[in-house]
Write a structure and sequence with these properties.
Shape: globular
Number of strands: 16
Low-confidence stretches: 1-13
Radius of gyration: 21 Å
Number of domains: 2
Largest sheet: 12 strands, mixed
CATH architecture of the largest domain: 3-Layer(aba) Sandwich
CATH topology of the largest domain: Peroxisomal Thiolase, Chain A, domain 1
């Protein structure tokens, strides 16, 4: 009887939960901390240089982006350091910086420990730690292999250690979807917030410049073997010869908008839309359609028209075929606006940090919107594609909506739309 007498138009709907970025933590080749990273990024400073990590001297990879001013013991407790690889040291340090930026302290989240989750993305896990333990195994015997070998190399190690160290008991996960996983992780975190989680610490940091990891990468045809740091990574130019790898990355704090405002925290940006596709490895021509489809999906999810995009942070792989596919994908998805919208790729100054790279781009996009400034693309001058690539110096202009693109060497494609949190 009750259901029959209830008016059809009285159905209740839950209020919309919007996900915002409230904290940014960065450990990158061009700086530790979001402010230092942004200062270098907006000035277009390139820190690409010869790889100096021990054991890499005789390898054919010459140029990369190293994090050289990072002291793990100054940011991570000894008991965690001995259990973890360099990629997790970066992740834990960046998570601390993001939590501090969001002003989300233990006094806040101990009240709702099951309301805070952790999501990271990883391309390869802890290669340096794994190499050291394998050397012990074959050089000295099994009794000299430490117990943490079972977990430190694992691609999920950063998620686990960040959640244990912080006391976060909410939904946790790790995304393994190629380099595009950095953007997919952000979308995964945003979805958790929409479904009811209060906050998620999300992002990625990589450490691919240890000897074993470098040897694994030498199978990538797209890896630059150039000797000159100024010429090793030049996407969208006739001199494009591949990408320079990098270590480091970024972590973000994302949370529900009204909860952030109730804490007295000003959101830095809103996560508006995301989409991902897969077009298979070794086929950059196919990534044109896949990336364009991802862009359209992200725009649809964000409720944004192509002409609303104010800046594109490009994937910028750095090979002629891949660059051409991306330029065409931007035109396919954004129409005539695709040839006019400013395009930037700050990663050409620091290297491509695999899953950490697109999270660094997302962090840069947030700060670009805050400052009304499109950062330049270091080491890139003579663009040979029909794109408005920002080169030389930063371009000042109002920015309300940013599009971040990422593709992986194994065929993943992702697009993320971010909106400014500033009042209209």
């Amino acid at each position: 009887m009750g259901s029959a007498s209830r008016p059809a138009n009285r159905r209740r709907t839950a209020p919309e939960r919007r996900t915002v970025v409230t904290g940014i933590g960065v450990v990158a080749p061009n700086g530790i901390g979001a402010d230092v990273f942004w200062k270098s990024t907006q000035e277009g400073i390139s820190v690409l240089d010869r790889v100096t990590r021990e054991g890499c001297e005789q390898l054919p990879l010459r140029v990369g982006g190293e994090v050289r001013d990072f002291e793990p013991g100054a940011m991570v407790e000894d008991r965690f350091l001995v259990q973890t690889d360099r990629f997790t040291h970066f992740g834990m340090a960046a998570a601390d910086l993001a939590l501090a930026d969001a002003r989300l302290g233990r006094a806040d989240y101990e009240k709702f420990p099951f309301g805070v989750g952790v999501v990271t993305a990883s391309g390869s896990g802890g290669g340096e730690f794994g190499q050291r333990e394998l050397q012990q195994l074959w050089g000295r015997g099994s009794r000299f292999v430490g117990p943490y070998q079972s977990i430190a190399w694992f691609y999920a190690a950063s998620t686990g250690q960040i959640s244990i160290r912080g006391g976060f008991k909410g939904p946790c996960g790790v995304v393994c979807s190629d380099e595009a996983g950095g953007l997919d992780a952000i979308a995964h975190a945003a979805g958790a917030v929409v479904r009811g989680t209060d906050a998620v610490v999300v992002g990625s940091a990589e450490a691919p410049l240890a000897p074993y990891s470098v040897v694994c990468q030498l199978g990538y045809e797209d890896l630059s073997r150039a000797d000159d740091p100024e010429r090793a990574y030049r996407p969208f130019t006739a001199e494009a010869c591949g990408f320079a790898p990098a270590e480091g990355g970024a972590m973000l704090v994302v949370e529900e908008e009204s909860a952030a405002l109730a804490r007295g925290v000003r959101p830095r940006a809103r996560i508006a839309g995301h989409a991902a596709t897969f077009t298979g490895p070794g086929n950059w021509a196919a990534s044109r359609e896949g990336l364009a489809r991802a862009v359209r999906g992200a725009l649809e999810a964000a409720g944004a028209a192509p002409e609303e995009i104010d800046v594109v942070f490009a994937d910028a792989l750095g090979t002629p075929e891949a660059d051409r596919a991306e330029a065409l994908a931007i035109a396919d998805a954004l129409g005539s606006h695709g040839t006019r919208v400013p395009v930037t790729a700050p990663k050409t100054g620091i290297g491509r940090a695999y899953c950490g790279g697109p999270v660094l781009d997302a962090a840069a996009a947030v700060m670009a919107m805050e400052h009304g400034l499109v950062p330049p693309t270091p080491n890139v001058f003579d663009v040979c594609h029909d794109l408005d690539v920002v080169t030389g110096k930063a371009r000042r202009m109002p920015l309300r909506t940013a599009l971040v693109l990422s593709r992986g060497l194994m065929g993943s494609n992702a697009a993320l739309v971010l909106r400014s949190a500033a009042p209209e």
